[in-house]
Each structure stands twice: as structure tokens, then as C-alpha cells.
Amino acid sequence: MFPVNESETRQRQVSDVHRRPEQFRLAWLASYVLAALLLLLPLGAAAAPYAAMVIDARTGEVLHSRNAETRLHPASLTKMMTLYITFEAVERGELSLDTEVTISRNAASEPPSKLGLKPGQKIAIRYLIRAAAVKSANDAATALGEAVSGSEAAFARRMNRTAKAIGMRNSTFRNAHGLTADGHLSTAEDMTLLGRRLFYDYPQYYNLFSRRSTYAGIKQVSNTNRRFLGSYTGADGIKTGYTRAAGFNLVASAERGQERVIVTVFGGRSSATRNAKVAELMDLGFRRAPSRVAVRKPAKLPYIGPAVARTTNGDIEDAVAEATGSRVAGKTIRIVTAIDRSQRPTARPAPAAPPTEMIAALKEGVDSALANAIGGAVAAETASAVEAAQPARIAAIAPIGRPARLSETEVEVAVVAAIAAAPAAPATLAALAEVAPAADEPALQEAPASVAQAVAAAVPAPVAAPAAASAIRGNGKPTYVTATRSLVDPRPREVVTRASTSGGRHWAITLGKFPSRDAAERILLKTALAEIETLDQALRKVIQRSNGFEANFVGLSEERADLACRRLAARQQTCLTVGP
Q1: Which pLDDT score, from 0 to 100, does residue 413 have?
Q2: Can you give the pTM of this predicted structure?
Q3: Which of 54, 137, 213, 422 sits between 20 and 30 A of 483, alpha carbons compared?
Q4: Which residues are catalytic?
């Protein structure tokens, strides 16, 4: 061993120190290059696990599935649910496409992608829908949620309620745009189901998802999915999504011939690789889907609506908040079901006044029916009774004078009865003739007792009206006595009619025989109303025969009778003309 020279050792140490900085500089340079390469990689390269699902849109049959039930970050696929609820709100009248929304500071402050809305700005719902569907604008999505539910938190609760109704078993939403938030998760299976729902439940809006660009109220915006729409034959939607936590997501739909396939991909490493994977799965779906199959559309959801409940501390909570996992311990939920205002019922429309011709025909029918109720036997009994009446009773009517409180009907009954009882007393007839024009129509029970006694003394109660009718027929003068509850007799009085047969109207028509007088009267009235043009001047008459009651219209000219029968025959109604 050679002794070590101390000075030589020190010199070697100094030279080693001079060589080390060169090595350190190389190591530092290598680390910088590696860091730069990592920064140049897509932000989604370290995204969540991959998941995919393929279905036949016509039937909902699953054609391919991988990790489809794994809960992952949906990113802007969330806007599919935001738009679905907005479409529902428009359909149900909660708001309209032209409803103007005032942009809140919260909506305007959302990070990109965004439309560029300003606080206080007003914009129509239709433009917010376009911005959310085509550009995937976060500020537009938040503004839609606030417009529908009043706040983004309340809208998130409605999103969860709707997801539960659709059958999205593994989805929970915290916002309307899809930016990463604690508990804001979904699955490839749920998003595929939602995409199919959008296509079938709101087909009138589905064209939005295939637009390459659109006007969104303040500017023209381009579709975030335009590359896939332009590269894959038959592609017509639906929605892209990207965040660093989610990676590159896409729910896409395409149609070829009679087949339609929906594909969902979560966790793509870039938009190019994602689109390539979706195209590959689309091809797989079209190979596996049958060419012809019966379309089984999903049943439309019952209206969810903005149902809310109030907590005991005044906050608004959703009635099914347990579905979101956001129920606060210790709060008592009280459902508000009381009606805060009553609605005035719609008034019934006032009935239209019947035509004058109909009123006249009905009156004539009633008169005729009552007149026919007076038979020959009753007339004979009436004549005998009148002949037996004492002249003193007739004279008792004269003091009646011109009663102001006796009805016209009462007076007519008394006058006619007096004429029938004493046709040879001109002075009495003249006095009674002056009574009728002065009579009015007060309540019957208000007539003076003296008048009632005088009328009762002059007219035999059971036969007053028939006697009057018989007497008037003898004079050959047309008149009538209105049926009423008289002071003389509380029973209804019959109306006696007599129509003139002058002017050559000696023809009649018969409608046949009927089992009862009532049936004959009904057919005459019905026919008169139906043929009021030809039968307006005819008299309805029922004649009792041995085998029934004959319904006739009398007082017609030959020409009018023939015309009426021809018109009735055209309506399949029996009719025969009868000459004089």
C-alpha cells in the first residue's frame, strides 16, 4: 500500500465538485421535459373508468353493455334532463317558449362553455333551450332551471324526482349544467334511457340536437357534436359532455332504414377517440338490431309538476327529497295541500228565446187539446144545466161592474156563462160586455169576496165552461176561454177554439189512427213544429173512432194539403188528404 498524499486527495475532491453540476443540469432538464409532456396530454386522459351501452331505440332492447351501471360523472349529459323537464314545463303550461327570463347573477357567473349572458338581461326560453342543446351553454342551463323551478336547488330536486319516475335508478343530480359536484352522478344505462325518452316523449324538439348551428337570441352558436354528426351516416343527435373528472362523454342516436340505435359512452380520452368508439358501437348495434320489429314506445310519464312541501322552518323542500339523499335530519315535512283560492264556477249560458212561430204552435196545440176534451155528452149535460138555471143568478152578475182586481179569465168565464144562461137579456149582455175589456190579471185569491159570491151564484160550478162553449157555438162567433183555477171552480178550465173555414180552406190531412188521444195530440204537435211552413194556418183536430183516435189537420186549401202530405211523405210519415 502506498501512503496517501493529503494534497492529492483534496485536489480530486475539488475536481469531482466541478463535474457534479453538469450531471444535475441533465437531470433537471429531463424532469422538465417529462412535466411538459404530461401537461400536453388531454386533461381527460386520466378520466373516470370507461362505460358504454347500446340499445335498439325501437324496443329498448340492450345490444351491448359494459360497466353500464357504474355511477360516473355525466358532465353535460346532465343537460338532457334539464331540457326534458323544460319541455315538460312548456307542454303543461308552466311557461311558454316566448316567456322572457331575467338572467340572475348566479346563472351569468357559470364557467364555460357559456352563451355569455349578463345579469339582468332578458331572453326568451326558446333561445335558452337552443343554447343548452346545441352549444351546451352552462349559463343557459342554469337560467332554464331557475325559470322552471325558481332556483337551481329546487330544479335539482325536480330533476331527481323526474329521474325516479323515468326509471333512472342510479342517477342523482345537484345542478342543471353537469359541472362536477359532490354526489352528481349517473350511469351509461340511465343516460341511454333518458336519450330514448327525449326521442319518443318530445319528438317535436328532437331536431334541435341535429342542428349544426343555430341562433340563440344574442348570437349564432355551433353544435358541440358537429364532428360526429358530419362523419357518421344517419347520426342525428344527441348530446356531448366533458369535464376533467368525467372525460369525454357522448349519447348518440342514428337511424338507417327502419332501424334506430342509441349509443352511450362514458370516459373517453379525447373527442376523437370517443367519436371513433361511438361509431364502432353504432356499427355493432346496426348489425345486431333486427331489420323489422314492432316499435314499443315508452308510456308517457304522469305529470310530475312543481310539487313542493313546506318544512316547519319555512324552507321549500321537495315532497320526495329522500330520493336525492338531501333530507335534513330533524326537519318535519308538512305537505301543503290546502287550496289558497277558490275558483268561481263558469256561469251557464242564458237559454235562447224560442222562436215566435214555436210559441204560437205550442199555444195552439194546448188550446186544441183542451177544446177536444169537451165531448158531446158533456155538452148535453151542460145545456140541461143551463136551462135549469134561475134568472135571478144571471141578474146577480150585473152589479159586478168593472172590477179592478178580477182577472180577465175570471170575467170571461162569468160573461160567457151569463150569455149561455140568459141569451134573451140584452141589457145584461151589454153590461157584461163592458166588463171584459177592463179586466186585469191580479192574483186570483185577491178578488173581493162579493165578486166571488156573485160569480158563484150566477154560474153552476161543474158546468160553467162547457155551457159557455155550447152557447157561443150557437152564436157562430169564434172565442176562447182560458183554462185557469177559477174562483167559481178550482179545477182547470178547458180552452175552446173555433177556426174560420172561410176562404176555400175545406181540405184536411190525416196522419192516421193512434191508441190514445194523448198520442194523437203529440204527433199533431210534433208535425206542426216540423212543418210550420205548410201547417201554420191549419187547425189540429183529434176525432175519436171505434178503433182509435184519428189525428187530423183541418182548415187547409187543396193546394196546401197536397203540399203538406208530399213533404211529410218524404219524411217517411203517413199522410192522406181529405176533400170536402
Answers
A1: 53
A2: 0.50
A3: 422
A4: 76, 79, 136
